[in-house]
Write a structure and sequence with these properties.
It is rod-shaped and about 85 Å long. It has 5 helices and no strands. Helix 1 runs antiparallel to helix 3, helix 1 packs parallel to helix 5 and helix 4 packs antiparallel against helix 5. The protein has 165 residues and is mostly helical. The chain has one domain.
Length: 165
């Protein structure tokens, strides 16, 4: 990087694209990955704790005198319901798969940027204009592919047998 913070150089079209489009997309994908990670881990922690506490609460009920069991029998019911609810909520909203998907796209965007800046991989032996075009094409393909992955993941998560639509 030079003194202006530019990865490529002043007024370079690739640098301009990175700063105007690529950077915003990367931040969005990383933000979505962090959001889904937070919710996924929160749901899993609640589910884990409630699942652990349910049999303990049932055992403790057996140790209590019968007159208290009726009132306190609601505790295992609430704990097991919370565990199942968290599992179903996370499964319905797909926080785990979304976390992985957004993280993957984010890492692929960063990888393409490094390849382009270092003139490595698919960018080796290309002039600046060809590097910019290939980088834009790869970046936009990753962004566009997210919509396809989203619909594949969220609308039809079950793979179809070969040849069936």
């Amino acid at each position: 990087m030079d003194e202006t913070g530019s990865a490529i150089g002043r007024n370079d079209p690739l640098d301009e694209y990175i700063n105007t489009r690529w950077k915003g997309q990367l931040e969005w994908f990383e933000g979505r990955a962090a959001y889904n990670q937070r919710l996924y881990l929160r749901m899993r922690r609640i589910m884990l704790v409630c699942s652990w506490l349910t049999p303990i609460a049932i055992f403790l009920l057996l140790l209590l005198p019968p007159r208290f069991r009726d009132w306190l029998s609601i505790v295992p019911l609430v704990l097991s319901t919370a565990a199942i609810a968290c599992y179903q909520w996370e499964d319905q909203h797909g926080y785990g798969p979304n976390w992985a998907k957004f993280r993957l796209i984010s890492e692929r965007l960063k990888r393409q940027r490094e390849f382009a800046i270092q003139r490595a991989g698919p960018y080796a032996d290309l002039d600046s204009d060809a590097v910019r075009r290939r980088f834009v094409q790869a970046t936009e393909g990753l962004i566009e592919g997210t919509d396809v992955n989203y619909f594949t993941l969220m609308v039809d998560p079950e793979p179809k047998p070969h040849g069936e639509l």
